[in-house]
Each structure stands twice: as structure tokens, then as C-alpha cells.
Design goal:
The chain has 298 residues and is an alpha/beta fold. The protein has a domain of 203 residues: Alpha-Beta Barrel (TIM Barrel), CATH 3.20.20. 38% of the residues lie in helices and 13% in strands. The chain is built from eleven helices and nine strands. The strands form two sheets. Strands 3-4-5-6-7-8-9 form a seven-stranded parallel β-sheet. The longest helix is centred in the middle third of the chain and has 15 residues. The radius of gyration is 18 Å and the shape is globular. The two termini are 31 Å apart. The structure holds NADP nicotinamide-adenine-dinucleotide phosphate. The site of NADP nicotinamide-adenine-dinucleotide phosphate (NAP) has 27 residues, from helix 10.
């Protein structure tokens, strides 16, 4: 077993990966693709190519799409990509903390729904902890659930003290997910956030799973290990990285790809299986490190 246990890796049994690795998402009544699609900066790309990338991802099983009101025109790109196929998608967006008052949350959600050209979100997140009382934000989110505008709600960038607070406000079984920074070179969430979420049935969604723009290259020791493992499977280093990140049943990852070939590559991680020994090699070359004082965020 790895030396820095705690939240020790436990790969999913292969049966869990049938049908493209859909898995329970906290307390939500639907299963969700373990590997989804991020959309931050997707609006910087050539529009038809970005739409093709998202649709290619959907075709290949990455039916979990993450966006946010903060991401410029990304919601418009997503709206175009999912037009005619809304029912295939587990659609997530986020309210900015500055908008997360009781009334502001509802208005922000309605704006997102218009940009996304849909009548509902599957999950709606508070993007990070801000100045509005959590009681007000949670009341608004619960109102949106009752109105059928969102299926579920969650949080993002919440460390355990914030999670304790939102749990006290909302009660068990209400928080669908916590979306947090997690990639091979940034494993801080494994110390306390992942165990907290697993104890309380909250899905953990890894954002920036490729480090945003710093994926370990083939000349680094870690990159060589990824390449070596990938070669054993006829896979790619990024597929290996994604599979490592979702090795526990509570974990999901949302890589962003504006290029259709990148989306296709990432979708390959849905059916990859790593051995316990391979997971240990990755764990050793990308060590978890000690627990930072503050939860890192991008
Ligand atoms: N909640 C939060 O606070 C928060 C913060 C950050 C991000 N997020 C979410 O997490 C998502 C992912 O994070 P991210 O966008 O920061 O970065 P990321 O997914 O770690 O990396 C994206 C970069 O990797 C490239 N890429 C993707 N797949 C590739 C492949 N198979 N081969 C080669 N290059 C590939 C992309 O290129 P191309 O685009 O050119 O294909 C892009 O440059 C975001 O889009 C957003 O939805 C949430």
C-alpha cells in the first residue's frame, strides 16, 4: 500500500465501469459520468470547433458538463452544443459568490438557464465562499429545487470548516458535490476534504485535472511513469492521469478540451483500468505532500 495513506487509493471494481463509468453522485438520484467536460475559456476557441469538441465528448460518454456564469460566453457555447440533446447531459453551472444572496441566486440561475437554452440544471454550485450568509444561499438553492429549476445543488472550493457550516445549515443528504482543485501535482484535498465528503455522501469533482496548463511532460520523472503505464494499456498519459484522479468511487473529473481530438482522448479514460501496482507507482512519483494551511484554489 502507499506510504502516505489516510485517503488510500481504492480502485473501482471493473463492474462499476460498465456503460462508460457512470457512478452515484453524492445523494443525487442520477448516475453521472466519472469523466466530464469543463468549459472555462472554451469561448476563446473557434466556436464551431468548441461545439464539436463538446458534442464529440457527449458522443463518447462524457455527458457531465461543467460551466459557470463566470466563464464569459462559455454557457452560450454549451447551450449550442447541447441543443437537441439536453436529456443526455448532466448539466452543472455556478453562481458567483457576489450574486449568491437569496434573490440574486435565483436571478443568476435564471440568466444561466437562458444562456444555456434549457429549463433546468442538474446541479447548481456556489462557486466559492463569499460574503452572503450561507443560510440565504441555501434557502435560494432549495427554492430552485422546489421550483424544478435545478435537480440538486453543491459547493465549490469549500474546505472542511466551510463544509461543516453548510452541512449545519442544509442537513445531510442535501449537498450534492464539492468541486475542488485536484490534479497529480496538487493532492491537498486527499488530506481532509475527500474523507469529509465520503463520510457525508458528497461527490468530489476534480477541477483543472491537468493542472490547467501544466501537465507533466515526457522529460519529467512523473511524465515518464505516466508514459510507461499508458504504453502498457495502449492509452495516453492524460488518460492515465484522469483514471488515477477518479480511482475512488466518490471522485469525478472535468477536463476542459476545446479541441475535438483532445475530447476524444479524455473520453478514453472512461474505460481504462489501472492496477493497484500502477496506482502505487503514480502515487509514489506524484506524492501527496503535507496538508497546506488553506485549501488551494485556482
Ligand atoms: N470551481 C472552480 O473554481 C473551477 C476552477 C477552475 C476550473 N474549473 C472547471 O474545471 C474545468 C477544467 O479545468 P481547466 O479548464 O482549468 O484545465 P484542465 O482541464 O486542467 O486543462 C485544460 C487544458 O488542457 C488541454 N487539454 C485537454 N485535454 C487534452 C488532451 N487530451 N491532450 C492535450 N491537451 C489537452 C486543453 O486544451 P484545448 O482546450 O486546446 O483542447 C486546455 O489547454 C474548467 O474548464 C472548469 O469547468 C472550476
Amino acid at each position: 500500500m502507499n506510504s502516505n495513506s489516510g485517503a488510500a487509493p481504492s480502485p473501482l471494481p471493473s463492474s462499476s465501469r460498465a456503460g462508460g463509468d457512470q457512478r452515484p453522485y453524492g445523494p443525487v438520484s442520477r448516475e453521472v459520468a466519472a469523466i466530464g467536460q469543463g468549459t472555462w475559456y472554451i469561448d476563446d476557441a473557434h466556436l464551431p470547433t468548441a461545439v464539436d469538441a463538446l458534442r464529440r465528448g457527449l458522443d463518447l460518454g462524457m455527458t457531465h458538463i461543467d460551466t459557470a456564469e463566470m466563464y464569459g460566453e462559455a454557457e452560450l457555447v454549451v447551450g449550442e452544443a447541447i441543443s437537441g440533446r439536453r436529456d443526455e447531459v448532466f448539466l452543472v453551472s455556478k453562481v458567483l459568490p457576489s450574486n449568491a444572496s437569496r434573490r440574486g441566486t435565483i436571478e443568476a440561475c435564471e440568466r444561466s438557464l437562458r444562456r444555456l437554452r434549457t429549463d433546468r440544471l442538474d446541479c447548481y454550485l456556489l462557486h466559492w465562499r463569499g460574503g452572503h450568509p450561507l443560510e440565504d444561499t441555501v434557502a435560494a438553492l432549495e427554492g430552485l429545487v422546489s421550483a424544478g429549476k435545478i435537480l440538486s445543488w453543491g459547493v465549490s472550493n469549500f474546505d472542511v470548516d466551510d463544509l461543516d457550516e453548510v452541512l449545519a445549515v442544509a442537513g445531510l443528504g442535501r449537498i450534492a458535490c464539492n468541486q475542488v482543485l485536484y490534479h497529480l501535482e496538487e493532492r491537498a484535498i486527499e488530506h481532509a476534504v475527500v474523507p469529509w465528503c465520503e463520510r457525508n455522501d458528497v461527490a468530489v469533482v476534480a477541477y483543472s485535472p491537468f493542472g490547467h496548463d501544466s501537465f507533466p511532460g515526457p522529460r519529467t520523472p512523473g511524465g515518464r511513469v505516466l508514459q510507461d503505464i499508458a504504453a502498457n494499456h495502449g492509452a495516453t498519459p492524460r488518460q492515465v492521469a484522469l483514471r488515477f484522479l477518479v480511482r475512488r468511487p466518490s471522485l469525478f473529473a472535468i477536463p476542459k478540451a476545446a479541441a475535438p481530438e483532445h475530447a476524444a482522448d479524455n473520453a478514453g479514460a472512461l474505460s481504462l483500468e489501472l492496477t493497484e501496482a500502477e496506482i502505487e507507482r503514480i502515487d509514489a512519483v506524484f506524492p501527496r505532500g503535507s496538508r497546506p494551511r488553506q485549501l488551494p484554489m485556482l
